[in-house]
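Let us begin with a simple case.
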Amino acid sequence: MNLLRASGIRRTYGSLQVLKGIDLEVKTGEVVAIVGPSGAGKSTFLHILGTLDRPDEGEVLIEGVNVFTQKDKDLAKFRNEKIGFIFQFHNLLAEFTALENACMPGYINDSGNEKEITSRGKELLDMLGLSGRMDHLPSQLSGGEQQRVAVARALFNRPSIVLADEPSGNLDSHNALDLHQLFFKLRDEFGQTFVIVTHNEELAEMADRRLVMQDGIMLP
């Protein structure tokens, strides 16, 4: 079953045509890596898949929902509940602890049950080997630990799909390998689906599919 289907995605900035009609289908529990040179349009495409940007043409369906037909408020709610994001530079909030950062999607979702939110955050950080670091600020964590907090945050609402943009690009080789193995553990144990933009060929070769983008198109 296809969890995600993007068809005919085009995006232009001024006179620069960044995406020139891209199609992609991703099955539930699949790990897809997208590689290609800088400037190929990989991050732009990922941001459109994650509804952080809108295409000029084309559509994106996630679990059968045509995401860009939704109103902005409904789309923001859908994004928070269905899509997890992991970025190269973590994007953790400096004034909040690891636990608070991991719980942020729960706070945004405004379920009102702080006890359940905290419990979910602790469960994730414990699963990711950070049980002793929950009360630490990002500045007190190593790069690998910060990225694991970012993974916990991405998984908080049990998203249908996790989109990762150069997730190991700021890590040393040891922490990068740990992170890559974690992705596949999450896929194997929980059926988590990933689309990963990466320059790391080792990670790309581990994926179920390795796709190449160049000059705004997906190569056959």
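The second case is a distinct protein. As before, the sequence precedes its structure tokens.
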Amino acid sequence: MEFLWGVLSSLAASLLVAGAAWSGSQRLRSRLISWLSRWTGAGVLQTYPSQSMANSALIADLRKAKWVCAFTSRGNELTRDSFAGLWQRHSGNVPVRVLLPDPSTSGTGTWLDQREHEVSEHDHAFRAGLLGRQIDANLDYLRAHVAGRPDVEVRLYDFPHLARVIATDRVAYLTVYSAREHGRNSPCVVFQQPSPMYDFCLRVFDVAWGQAKSSPTSH
């Protein structure tokens, strides 16, 4: 009887997935994902075909955050609407930790150099240190907005560019980078807290944070 129930449950889940895909309803797909996540314990709240499609939800989650951790590869998102509300908040309100690649390592066979080589395979503009210069520009933007704020800490890392993690006390956005396209075009998955994948995202951040070097925001 227990075996039969397991088979019937799997069949029902498969039919629901197929039905949601056939209907084309984003709301139905979201509800289905949430239900399956609770059923399996996976902790998946939402999935997006590309990182850029998750931006509106990210803005809403950052507005409700009690703290934020951002582990990014280039840092363009830090200069956009998603983070604008955080940079406008009063000092000490929401602790923010930001990890960016160390642009001083550009062109020396480091992980930054490897990521630039990957991107250059499909976007020929990314040569001769362009990625490092873009990171420098995003650092300048960040420092101008958070100078003198003790609630914002920035560190620079030399670590594999395999994913982007933006986490709050409630959720974690994980974008798994492809070697064949920009991060903004890579799929993004949102995990809830508590869940194993939420914990994994925070572990990735903490490992990178522990080996990164400080970058004063007052420069």
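The longest helix spans residues 2-23. The helical segments are 2-23, 26-40, 55-63, 81-88, 111-120, 130-146, 196-211.
Keep these points in mind for the review questions at the end of the chapter.
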